[in-house]
């Protein structure tokens, strides 16, 4: 029984996706008066969950008098700060937070937070995989799987690995991961940051803002955007960089084909040839995950075994099939130029490249040298491919267009020869022809299997 006569606090949740519904469940459990409001439609699955928990909800509208009386508002990461409703809430000084911030208040778990423009899903999944095999009771959440809030509500784990987007970090106030990982920073989502790269950089660095001297920050020391920002804005946590280019006293580096990690004279060594995931970017992901695992006292032999056995993330440089000695690779998760850079960089032979979709202000020039070196033909799969055709018209003779995945794969099948690759790595968002990058990747795999 709750004996204090305090008035029940009101939690309003904007957006009834995975993070919104999870927050509503946790809020209900913690004794809030909860109201969920979604401007779009709520899926039948989530409606049923909300009914089961007896949580009040509305869809296709935001009823302001039911929202502006909130004590705290959890806003879905998809809703920009500049919309009227959010501005009204801020004008009334009502606290607007992200699910990550809200949920972190109700767990005493040790949190590993992973952010970055690219590599964060692989690093999150790989870290979770190692910690789990190392015997820790660990859950994975954030941008991935069941929401953090729902997991805190239903079976709070002692350890979490959270994949965090810049939008989720924009909505934190006190959230502080014990270990923060920043994989890299390249221009992405600038439409949400007034087209200012420095705003996006600041957003990523929010992962460190509440850390103290007992916490750790693991980052790519080869990334000048990160290292310059650290010089300008020093942080309090202990720095553990990783690098492919130079030797480091504390942190992870590459030497003669070996990954070497040193933390307080504790050393870990592993040859990169033993890594199950190929490509330099995956050496970095492995360094980050192994550094976290070493901090959390996982046995070195376990870390090695996991790095040898981990099979990667669906839609991220995923080998689908080999047909007539041509390897088909699904990299649908490459929704920006930098991700595609890593994919092309990992190709060891001539490649037919399927590219295109919704362009987020891409600068394709950084791909020119790789395209010249590796790409024998380009297939544009998008509603408007003008920019791609203009960008690569001088690099590649064979450029064609289609708006059908099946046709794109059939075209590629005709062009690719023995020992070559067919790579779907769009460098763009998927919303022009597909629901999301997962659907795009699944259609690619289905089309390949039908060849």
TrEMBL record:
Pathway the protein takes part in: Cell wall biogenesis; peptidoglycan biosynthesis
Primary location group: cytoplasm
Cytoplasm in keyword set: yes
GO molecular function, one term: UDP-N-acetylmuramoylalanine-D-glutamate ligase activity
InterPro entries linked to this entry: Mur-like_cat_sf, Mur_ligase_C, Mur_ligase_C_dom_sf, Mur_ligase_cen, MurD
Binding of ATP, residues: 116-122
Protein location: Cytoplasm
Keywords, alphabetical: ATP-binding, Cell cycle, Cell division, Cell shape, Cell wall biogenesis/degradation, Cytoplasm, Ligase, Nucleotide-binding, Peptidoglycan synthesis
Domain (Mur ligase central) ranges: 114-292
SUPFAM superfamilies named in the record: MurCD N-terminal domain, MurD-like peptide ligases, catalytic domain, MurD-like peptide ligases, peptide-binding domain
One Pfam family it belongs to: Mur_ligase_M
Domain Mur ligase C-terminal: 315-428
Known EC number: 6.3.2.9
Enzyme class of the recorded protein, top EC level: ligase
Catalysed reactions, semicolon-separated: UDP-N-acetyl-alpha-D-muramoyl-L-alanine + D-glutamate + ATP = UDP-N-acetyl-alpha-D-muramoyl-L-alanyl-D-glutamate + ADP + phosphate + H(+)
Domain of life (superkingdom): Bacteria
PANTHER family: UDP-N-ACETYLMURAMOYLALANINE--D-GLUTAMATE LIGASE
NCBIfam families linked: murD (TIGR01087)
Family as reported in the entry's similarity comment: Belongs to the MurCDEF family.
Biological function: Cell wall formation. Catalyzes the addition of glutamate to the nucleotide precursor UDP-N-acetylmuramoyl-L-alanine (UMA).
UniProt-recorded name of the protein: UDP-N-acetylmuramoylalanine--D-glutamate ligase
Species name: Aquimarina celericrescens
